[in-house]
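With this grant's support, we have settled on a layout for protein records. An illustrative entry appears below exactly as we store it:
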Amino acid sequence: MLSTIKHDLHALMNGVLANQLRERGMRYRIIYGVELPRLALYAEELKKEVVEPQARYDLAQSLWKTETRECRLLTPMLAPPERLLPEVADIWLEQAHTQEEVSCLVRYLFCRTPFASDKAFQWMADEREMLQLGGFLLVAQLMRRGGTLAPRDEAELLDQAEAALQATNTLCRKAAYNALLCLAEKGLRQERLVETLLKRHGL
């Protein structure tokens, strides 16, 4: 199945984008340059071929183990959320090469798991870059999907985001800022809390 997928990805190849990604320093052995919307459509086709959840999960794991950009991005698009274990989510996030991989893991897979909220706050407090980035992206995604935070969770997000805003990591700073904007959209009280925090940092 892997060889068939790689053949299909080669047919979808965008050479211009592939070269641009290599010039940006993406560290993959193979880059086909397939755009995310096209990858998502291809993933839907694969789901029709690999219907059984465990088989799809096994395929997703195999794709993650490759050093091909598109295969790794297909992993969260294919893996059934109900089959994903929290400890595997930790491993995949820690092994992520790029912000693009983290974003796809969050958007297509992690936000659909039953442990999403717990992991979001656990990862936000982690010192490892990809885990912290994933935590802020995940809590923002959950709020965009209609989720609300308990007051204690709001306070935790504000504390973690404030720490991230003072850090040197640009990706985490941006993700923390965006998570705060999502919180501010939940109501006037939350908007005032976020506004006060941002003013403290001249934002």
About this structure: The mean pLDDT is 93. Residues 129-144 form the longest helix (16 residues). Residues 122 and 135 are 7 Å apart (CA to CA).
